[in-house]
TrEMBL record:
CDD domains listed in its UniProt record: Anticodon_Ia_Ile_BEm
GO biological process: isoleucyl-tRNA aminoacylation; mitochondrial translation
Domain called Aminoacyl-tRNA synthetase class Ia: residue spans: 44-638
Family indicated by similarity: Belongs to the class-I aminoacyl-tRNA synthetase family.
CC per GO annotation: mitochondrion
Cellular localisation: Mitochondrion
The protein's name in its UniProt record: Isoleucine--tRNA ligase, mitochondrial
Length: 937
């Protein structure tokens, strides 16, 4: 045998004698394993925990996503947060109930279904439209469900609630009936928010505001007819000139002062004193003079004027209103009770009925006695035509064609809405808002600002328009007299209709082949043929807001949705529950922010900044991102965030893989495990750190502070495992004899770290934890499902404060050691820290000396160097191949506690363990020689 072959044989023998990590756990999961792991950690885990005793129980009520689109990052944030909560509650010993739901009705689904079919509603019957919408919602639900399940979200996916299910619709109608019994439901012809682009009424929650809306702000004069003021005109200002045809009155401020002026351009004008300067600044008055000033608004009550476009109609009154101010306009307000909420309320006191000659799509109707305006789009072409007519009568003082101001838009079509008087159904919020707000005092909010936000929205609301002019929804269960349009809506009639819908389904309401007499209660049998039914449906917020009715019991333990739901689902749920049951439907409300792009902008297709959940390499990286995010505020999603989540998963997987590798020959149930008192101090420090992080992480999870939990796990992985314990024990685990006490001690601690580490990761990446658990069991480690069903509680004795204080001193010295090593490395004298040896000389009389004595035998391992000597004297002067540093490690008056000297190790590199302690080149060190001897090598 040649010298080179002998050397290779020796090297092979030495390498084979090392106890290197061995595990079948892969660095990357095979795609083929994903389906089984997903089933194990979702379906099977959920069913297993459902077999627990009924108490303690935890119900997270799912706010239903809308069934009309692809999944986006908002869905991911919401559903994964819910899953983190549920898994936390399972670990806490609770029996979790989570029934996913979907919001299935409403205009967006109806419109999308028609668009997909390339049809208009007018081309189809209501039943045909409803079928298209139902089919779209059904397909969307299945698509979204597949995505949610792929993300590892567990729940009762085979038994979700859907607002289009007959059983759900019947429960919803029962809530409506309860509200009717309490006098909270009424019908009224009054102005509501109306979307011409959607052809339906809207609730306030369905509005968004455009800060840059442009209007034609116009000053218009109305001739006063009272003889005392011959030739005088009242001047109004409006940003909606298209509402002028519906004008019924002018309002002034009771305590405001007014002037009559003579304008060279426009004759005698009535204007508030405080607005004259503004009018003069526009330049439209020309030369002018004051005829009379300081007229109290109260003196103008009872005067009348003629409508400049409808001079043949009876004169309209002037009266006072509290909302009139001198902040803008002229101090005289044009009142169109058919197109203004405040106008309607004030005019009602004067017995002036609303007039709204505009149809569902915003076009003037033949109710308006001005034929030239018929069928024109009121806000656009109609408004321009109104101005032309007013100019022809010399009624226009001034027009600002591009007046920019805030204006409400339909949040779905992104087009301007109008206020339009129609006969609608309302829920009386004024009667219940005080107890609703009071009930929130018993509800926990995370973050607490959610309480103030929800209270403010409820407080600002007096009524809720609950009817919509669409066919895809739950019908308003009212009958209408065919001659008078009076509505039949009583407890008896609604109960009868509910029974019929329970039997026939809601489609029957829209089926022309089923006569209306089918739904007429017996008490109206004599007039059965006098009634008709209409297609008005309920607001979808009423649909989803009654979802609490599908819970086995209320209140639910948690509602968790985006912060915008204070004006949506949280509010509608609270109002319907308070109305029907006199209590809130939730014990705890958690709100999260929105997902923004990397620049902090809202994601939208038009901006091209949408980041899809599929951008993440895997569902587990997506879960890591959600867990680490601060959900209490809006979250910016950047490529760096995706990279960070990916790295977090990689580190977690590699850490688990290394732990399994060094535990391959360890059996904790046998004599392998080492008792705590026999562990090395380094081992006990690792357990102290584990006790701290496990306790703090569990506390964070229990308070739903997932970002804090994820951050602590990441820090522990990097600082306490990778950069400390798993690094320093490599030599011990690889090079020591298999059954040596020091090696078994390291494995004992590694085993505890493995169990607690995977337990901490369970809510975030359950598939990774289950995959590792299966490999651990296959390799002989005794594990049960306890680790994924309960919190692992660290042993009390692991918490060792005095040892931790000593460790802080050792770490401070280690920092100096590392600086010394880096200096030697820059000089080119060493490449790795094992090429160094260290000398530490504590000053006399400091506590450090006794600490170093206690730790003397473990300092080499702790610092990963090839020798440490303590207190043997050293010159302050730096010699060749040495780096000396004075170090302060505790609060002493001297300011310096020790001298640390780092030098190149004097020993030779052991070819087996690579520690520089061999006596001669090519020889093994003393420790390795003993191990090889026992192995017969």
């Amino acid at each position: 045998m040649t010298a080179s072959s002998s050397l290779r044989a020796l090297q092979g023998s030495l390498k084979s004698s090392l106890l290197l990590p061995t595990t079948a756990f892969p660095s990357r999961r095979p795609p083929s394993a994903a389906a089984a792991l997903l089933k194990k950690t979702t379906i099977e885990l959920y069913n297993r925990q459902r077999s627990r005793p009924p108490t303690p129980a935890f119900t997270l009520h799912d706010g239903p996503p809308y069934a009309n689109g692809e999944l986006h990052m908002g869905h991911a944030l919401n559903k994964i947060l819910k899953d983190l909560v549920n898994r936390t509650e399972i670990l806490s010993g609770n029996r979790v109930s989570y029934v996913p739901g979907w919001d299935c009705h409403g205009l967006p689904i109806e419109l999308k279904a028609l668009q997909n079919a390339k049809l208009k509603a007018s081309q189809l019957s209501p039943l045909e439209t409803r079928k298209l919408a139902r089919d779209l919602a059904t397909k969307t639900i299945e698509d979204q469900k597949a995505g949610f399940r792929e993300w590892g979200v567990m729940g009762e996916w085979d038994n979700p609630y859907k607002t289009m299910d007959k059983s759900y619709e019947v429960r919803q109608l029962e809530v409506f009936k309860e509200m009717l019994k309490k006098g909270l439901i009424y019908r009224r012809f009054k102005p509501v928010y109306w979307s011409p682009s959607s052809g339906t009424a809207l609730a306030e929650a369905e509005l968004e505001y455009n800060e840059n809306h442009l209007s034609k702000a116009t000053f218009i004069k109305f001739p006063i007819v009272d003889a005392e003021w011959e030739g005088l005109s009242a001047v109004i200002w409006t940003t909606t000139p298209w509402t002028i045809p519906a004008n019924k009155a002018i309002a002034v401020g009771k305590d405001m002062l007014y002037s009559v002026i003579e304008s060279a351009n426009h004759g005698k004008l009535l204007v508030a004193n405080e607005r004259l300067a503004y009018l003069e600044a526009t330049g439209v008055l020309g030369d002018w003079s004051t005829i009379r000033e300081d007229i109290p608004g109260s003196d103008l009550i009872g005067y009348h004027y003629t409508h400049p476009l409808l001079p043949e109609t009876s004169p309209h009154p002037i009266f006072t209103a509290d909302f009139v101010t001198a902040d803008s306009g002229t101090g005289l307000v044009h009142m169109a009770p058919g197109h203004g909420m405040d106008d309607y309320l004030v005019c009602l006191k004067h017995d002036i009925q609303p007039f709204s000659p505009v149809n569902a799509y915003g076009k003037y109707t033949d109710e308006l006695p001005i034929p030239s305006l018929h069928d024109l789009d009121a806000p656009t072409a109609g408004g321009a035509a109104v101005l032309e007519l007013l100019e022809a009568t010399n009624s226009v003082l001034h027009v600002n064609p591009k007046y920019k101001h805030k204006y409400p838009y339909d949040w779905r079509t992104k087009k301007p809405i109008m206020i339009r008087a129609t006969a609608q159904w309302f829920a009386d919020v004024s009667q219940i808002k005080a107890p609703a707000i009071e009930s929130l005092e018993e509800v926990k909010f995370t973050p607490d600002v959610g309480r103030h936000r929800l209270s403010a929205f409820v407080k600002a609301r007096s009524e809720w328009c609950i009817s919509r002019q669409r066919v895809w929804g739950v019908p308003i269960p009212a009958l209408y007299h065919k001659d008078t349009d009076d509505a039949l809506l009583t407890e008896e009639s609604v109960s009868y209709i509910i029974n019929k819908i329970s039997e026939l389904g809601t489609d029957a309401w829209f089926d022309p082949s089923i006569p209306t007499t089918t739904f007429v209660p017996p008490s109206q049998a004599d007039t059965a043929n006098d009634w008709i039914r209409k297609s008005d449906t309920m607001d979808v917020w009423f649909d989803s807001g009654t979802s609490w009715k599908s819970l086995p019991s209320t209140p639910a333990d948690l509602y968790l949705e985006g912060s915008d739901q204070a004006r949506g689902w949280f509010q509608s749920s609270l109002l319907t529950s308070l109305s029907a049951t006199s209590s809130a439907p939730f014990k705890h409300v958690l709100t999260h922010g929105f997902v923004l792009d990397k620049h902090g902008k809202k994601m939208s297709k038009s901006l091209g900044n949408v980041v899809a959940p599929s951008t993440f390499p895997s569902p587990e990286t997506l879960r890591f991102w959600v867990a680490a995010a601060d959900f209490s505020k809006d979250i910016s999603l950047s490529p760096q965030a995706v990279a960070t989540a990916t790295e977090s998963l990689r580190k977690a997987r590699n850490t688990i893989r290394f732990l399994l590798g060094i535990l391959s020959d360890f059996s904790p149930a046998d004599t392998n495990a080492v008792e705590y008192d026999r562990l090395k101090k380094i081992d006990r420090i690792a357990l102290h750190q584990l006790h701290h992080v496990a306790t703090q992480v569990r506390t964070a999870y229990l308070s739903y502070s997932f970002g804090r939990a994820a951050t602590m796990i990441a820090a522990y992985t990097s600082a306490n495992l990778s950069a400390f314990y798993l690094d320093v024990i490599k030599d011990r685990v690889y090079s020591s004899a298999a059954n040596s006490p020091e090696r078994r001690a390291a494995q004992t601690v590694a085993w505890e770290i493995y169990k607690h580490y995977t337990n901490m990761l369970t809510p975030i990446v359950p598939m990774l934890v289950e995959e590792a658990r299966q490999h651990a069991i296959e390799s002989g480690l005794k594990l049960t499902d306890v680790e994924t069903m309960e919190w692992m509680i660290p042993q009390a004795q692991w918490e060792n404060g005095s040892l931790a204080q000593e460790w802080d001193m050792i770490r401070t010295l280690h920092d100096a050691v590392k600086r010394g090593f880096e200096s030697l490395k820059k000089r080119g004298e060493v490449k790795v820290s094992l090429e160094c040896q260290v000398e530490v000389v504590p000053l006399a009389g400091v506590r450090l000396g006794s600490v170093l004595e206690k730790w003397r035998d473990e300092l080499e391992e702790a610092w990963i160097v090839s020798g440490v000597s303590v207190g043997e004297g050293v010159e302050a002067k730096e010699e060749d191949s040495e780096v000396a540093e004075e170090v302060k490690v505790e609060d002493e008056a001297t300011g310096v506690n020790a001298m640390v000297v780092v030098r190149k190790a004097r020993g030779k590199k052991c070819p087996r363990c690579w520690v520089y302690k061999a006596a001669m080149e090519g020889e093994v060190c003393g420790r390795c020689a003993k191990v090889l001897e026992t192995l017969g090598v």
